Predict the 3D structure of the following.
Amino acid sequence: MTNAIDTSELELPYRLQYQESRTDSGGIMACRTHAYLGGILRDLGGVAQEVGGVADHVHFLAALKATHCLADVLRDTKTGSSRWIHETMRIRSFAWQEGYGAVT
């Protein structure tokens, strides 16, 4: 079943690297960023059940295909969203902290 979605729900929190990179947690920047992160996950074949967070970190609740490598998915979401934030929102100092947490 290569098209099966893993039924494990994963909480995937990761933090911003620099304090000056903080998002506006409930504002337009955060909403657009959360939507963009969900789109990246969808493009990778996963399902973003919920994306949210606070000023200094973001949380995903996601389901991934059983064939996905979690580290690759997180690398791709962090890389893609960083590029998008640099180009679209012009926040050059923005960066995600290295690493992530995953809870099932």
